[in-house]
């Protein structure tokens, strides 16, 4: 493909025969080849224990490194993958790759949890539980460290099927998180019957910490809700020391965000694991060292 800029500063895409493509059509075509061209990779963002300051887990986040277009983020290509049906094979690749990486870290003595995002289509597949079982077995990873992230919208469709599936997954030894908790159009009723291990407080809430008393009440209510249901709770999108500090005070278990680290390659993450924990200062100000 050739990328050409027209007079108005817009990009246009041409194939070898100089035919104009829409960007979407182009990405669609390229994405269908991304898997066997080995252009997909996972980055890993650390998850920090709020009290100890150490890395206790990571979230696997997919990236597409295209030969000429550069790095393409999931927000841009996952919707296309879902539309074209490619998400099923991509999702399976993610599971395989993340479990393999987790196994490698486990063999090196790094017992950290790996969060893996699931797409709705992937989760809804009849064969999904079987696929997870097969990959766990093939990679030999300890499943206690595998954490599958589902969204509230996955949780809310065909509730009885979802519960059956989640229970089957839990039997395999993995744990389940609700991603972007609080942003979906869901009722809290499902939490009563779902075998969920962790709530991930959406970035939308974290970023507004300090903005209002209402925000404070919402976040502390989510933390208390999780704690009283014996669930873990992690805040996503922690960018500022003040946010981390408040999350510590209200006894949120874990934190994840740019304050600690952006998502990084497996190799770079390996280096972070050997470093001392973040210094955590309980007296209001949080000093970030280490990473
Ligand atoms: P998510 O699962 O909620 O992941 C968190 C997103 O927030 C990531 O964006 C991460 O890079 C970003 N983030 C983390 N900390 C901060 C922060 O402090 N500030 C800000 N502004 N952003 C932060 P990313 O990697 O672009 O992924 C976006 C979404 O794409 C993910 O949201 C997830 O829904 C989806 N996704 C990513 N990888 C996969 C995958 O392998 N499979 C599926 N099905 N979905 C994926
Ligand atoms: Mg996620
Ligand atoms: Mg999230
Ligand atoms: Mg999300």
TrEMBL record:
Domain EAL as annotated: residue spans: 24-277
Name under which the protein is recorded: DUF4084 domain-containing protein
Span within the parent record: 619 to 909 of 912
């Amino acid at each position: 493909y050739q990328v050409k800029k027209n007079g108005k500063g817009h990009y246009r895409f041409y194939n070898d025969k100089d035919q104009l493509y829409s960007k979407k059509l182009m990405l669609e075509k390229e994405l269908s080849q991304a898997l066997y061209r080995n252009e997909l990779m996972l980055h890993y963002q650390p998850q920090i224990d709020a009290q100890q300051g150490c890395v206790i887990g990571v979230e696997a986040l997919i990236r597409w490194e295209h030969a000429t277009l550069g790095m393409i983020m999931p927000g841009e290509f996952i919707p296309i993958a879902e539309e074209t049906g490619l998400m099923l094979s991509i999702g399976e690749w993610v599971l395989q790759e993340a479990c393999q990486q987790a196994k490698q870290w486990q063999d090196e003595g790094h017992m950290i949890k790996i969060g893996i995002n699931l797409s709705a289509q992937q989760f809804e597949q009849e064969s999904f539980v079987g696929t997870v079982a097969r990959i766990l077995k093939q990679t030999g990873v300890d499943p206690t460290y595998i954490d599958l992230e589902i969204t509230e919208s996955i949780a809310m469709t065909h509730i009885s099927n979802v519960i059956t599936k989640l229970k089957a997954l839990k039997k395999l030894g993995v744990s389940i998180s609700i991603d972007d908790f609080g942003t979906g159009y869901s009722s809290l009723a499902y939490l009563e019957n779902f075998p969920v291990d962790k709530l991930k407080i959406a970035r939308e809430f974290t970023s507004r910490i300090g903005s209002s008393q209402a925000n404070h009440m919402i976040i502390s209510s989510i933390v208390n809700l999780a704690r009283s249901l014996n669930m873990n709770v992690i805040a996503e999108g922690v960018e500022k020391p003040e946010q981390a500090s408040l999350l510590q005070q209200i006894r949120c278990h874990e934190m994840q965000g740019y304050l600690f680290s952006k998502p990084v390659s497996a190799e770079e993450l390996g280096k972070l694991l050997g470093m001392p924990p973040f210094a955590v200062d309980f007296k209001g100000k949080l000093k970030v060292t280490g990473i």
